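in:
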């Protein structure tokens, strides 16, 4: 449950799927985006969770594919969530860059650009049986999803 130290290529793939759209977004932020009123506690939880998730997902080899079993369904489910995350980014980049468009739900999933990767990392932690990633995903989830929900409430 603690994890085996070693490089995770699956973790690297997940981080690339996470970081590349965010780098593109930094140059294409919503025209009406304002992050000056974000809750400082949620922001702290988000940052701590980001660092812990990034480290955990890279330094534990438990996420790498060894053999296929029924337990692999956790990995498949997690990866599907990351695919949906990418679809949400494509949807955002192909439409008008507004907060409303940025935060719109996906298949009834609220704030999908925040909730999908958090859920994916949580499921990846379960797949790898790594408590550090599970805890990190919960921490980032509280901060990141909380901040996004605040933004949604502010634009309504």
């Amino acid at each position: 449950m603690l994890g085996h130290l070693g490089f995770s290529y699956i973790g690297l793939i997940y981080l690339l799927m996470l970081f590349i759209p965010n780098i593109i977004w930094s140059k294409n932020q919503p025209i009406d985006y304002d992050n000056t009123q974000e809750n400082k506690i949620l922001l702290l939880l988000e940052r701590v969770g980001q660092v812990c998730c990034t480290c955990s997902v890279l330094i534990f080899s438990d996420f790498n594919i060894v053999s296929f079993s029924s337990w692999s369904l956790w990995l498949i489910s997690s990866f599907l969530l990351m695919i949906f995350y990418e679809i949400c980014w494509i949807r955002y980049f192909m439409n008008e860059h507004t907060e409303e468009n940025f935060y719109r739900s996906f298949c009834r999933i609220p704030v999908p650009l925040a909730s999908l990767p958090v859920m994916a990392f949580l499921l990846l932690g379960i797949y790898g049986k790594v408590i550090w990633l599970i805890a990190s995903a919960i921490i980032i989830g509280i901060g990141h999803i909380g901040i996004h929900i605040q933004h949604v409430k502010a634009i309504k």
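note: The chain has a mean pLDDT of 95.
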